[in-house]
């Protein structure tokens, strides 16, 4: 069983948090602004799959751009390959009703993927389970996002996109994999 969701990791917005600090030196989170010459995006989109039965493992993949159906299928394909390496046969995947989860493209991709797995007799089938609308608290990965955002906060400096992604991966104990992207069409 896995819980899948996406989130944005901001380089500028500070999460709400409480912290212990020395009496005379309370921690101050400074408001940050993007510089005109900063080539990095203001925030990074990230897919995550929380697998509580595999030692509470969370797999992450960052996205160049935003979550869309074509990126979702790349993430699912990557996740299935990793699960197959672990000897798993199926993924009961709990996720929300994001448009890129319930799109025709993703539904057809999952159906075709499951047919290929059945025909080959190997691979990992995907059984999607949609959560009720407006119920993110039922997805076990959501609290992990909140705690992760608090752990990667930088009080005064602005992290580069790569530094932020590295910190996030460190917090979740996973490798910073190459970012998912859709190839640009060449004229």
From TrEMBL:
One of its GO terms (molecular function) is nucleic acid binding. Residues 70-154 form the Tc1-like transposase DDE domain. It comes from the Bacteria. This is Tc1-like transposase DDE domain-containing protein. It comes from uncultured Rubrobacteraceae bacterium.
